[in-house]
Amino acid sequence: MATFFVDPCTITPPVIRIVGDLLHHLRDSLRLHPGDSLTLNDGCGTRYRVEVTHVNSQAIESRIIDQQIAPENTTFPVVLGQALLKGDKMDLVVQKATELGVAAIVPIHSTHSVVRPHPDRLRHQRIRWERIARDAAQQSERWSIPSLADPAGLPEVCRQYALTSAKGILQERANGSPLSEMPLPQDGHGPIILLVGPEGGWAPDEQRVAHAQGFLPLTLGPRILRAETAAIAALSILQSRLDKIALVVRET
User: Fold this and answer.
1) Can you name the residues that pair with 168 across neighbouring β-strands?
2) Is the CA virtual torsion 230, 231, 237, 241 positive or negative?
3) Where are the alpha helices (DSSP H) in the chain?
4) How high is the pLDDT of residue 96?
5) Residue 39, domain CATH
6) 113 with 225, same domain?
7) How crowded is the C-beta side of 161, counted as CA atoms within 13 Å?
8) How far is CA 234 from CA 15, 58, 113, 150, 242, in A?
9) CA–CA dist 33, 54 (Å, integer)
10) pLDDT tens profile 198-236
11) CATH number for the domain including 190?
């Protein structure tokens, strides 16, 4: 069974009380009953194996059987700066980026973004993305849920990560370095920040802004990929490289 995230305030050892949307999912969809067991995650580095003791319309009461602490993180956190995409494409990127282990997702307003969320809808949209990220983190059995920032302009995001040593911007039709050769942090910690453009790509002035802040022009090869495909492919490449680093660290 997948690992489910709960609010740390619902944990009062030896009892964890499940309420809200998760209550309805576990009770009505998975049909949990007293005596069933499941794994709960506080999102802060601890997982609990619990046994359900009581189920009603207000809450599921469970008893902690044992707990596990998250292993030490031996790789660099990855931050995805994703230009806003239309329709369910942004939902897909949030889902797959979470499955691929990003630490944070920063939506970016860009010149060529087709979608421009109205300020009144930003809170609703962020709640939707947070739910998608939570569900993806549960499915992939992550120890934590990536943070989701409010949408910001590219100059603001570039300034925010100006001091980060490992940062790049994906550019189609550019003479950039292959992402597989992007230098990784040398100071023992991250983050790694990767900027991925919208359906129409980054505008020339946006590229100049990023370059001025030290973002390395990067490519995924000669093919022109859809924006959502580019994000997934790029994160897969980074994840593969980071997994190799983690393996070396574990073996030393």
Assistant:
1) 194, 216
2) positive
3) 20-24, 89-99, 119-139, 154-160, 204-212, 227-251
4) 98
5) 2.40.240.20
6) yes
7) 30
8) 42, 43, 19, 22, 12
9) 8
10) 988 999 999 999 999 999 999 998 888 899 999 999 999
11) 3.40.1280.10
